[in-house]
Specification:
The chain is mostly helical. The chain has helices at 3-102, 108-130, 137-160, 172-204. The longest helix has 100 residues, at 3-102.
Amino acid sequence: MPDSLKDDTEKDIGRLFQEKDLLEEQIRKLDFEKIERLQKYNEELEKRAEWLDKERIKVIKERDNYRKQVKNFRGRKWFSSLRMVSILAVIDLIILPLLLWLLKIPIQWFFISIGIITFFGILIIANYMSGTSPLNSGEVRKALTSSFVVTYFAFLPLVTFGSVNLPADEPIKTIVTNFTWIVGAIVIFYFGSRALEEYVKTKNQ
């Protein structure tokens, strides 16, 4: 083999080795950069996971606080409602009869007054418990039914035991029977309309 050809071959081999080293160096750089990027990405993921854990703990604490507030609010709401019902009962059973007796007002006005007071009292209490600003039909039904039922249970014993003097041409039995039918119809209408509303809501869902 001529010396010139041998020298050229050695030069080519040397150049190839240099290219090989250069490629290996580039591969090492690329691997190092890739590792660095992966490490940075991993650190970002760890920071994000840590932040999400903190946010999750924060949300859990806020949820627990909200549940406590709702529970306390419901307790206070029920307590306030019971207090309003007690006030309404005192007005119907004590204050109203006392005023009628002191002012010598006929007993028939007692039934009218107790019905009106009970209607508006139950209407206010029902609206307070529902938490809605405008009155809805359900609250009016509750108030109307309650006023008739309370008036009925106040009217029945007074008439039965002779505490109320009714006109002679109106038999007690007829009055009690007619009033009973009216109260029964109102109660049936109340529960029937409520069941119908629930059925419509369920069907729409």
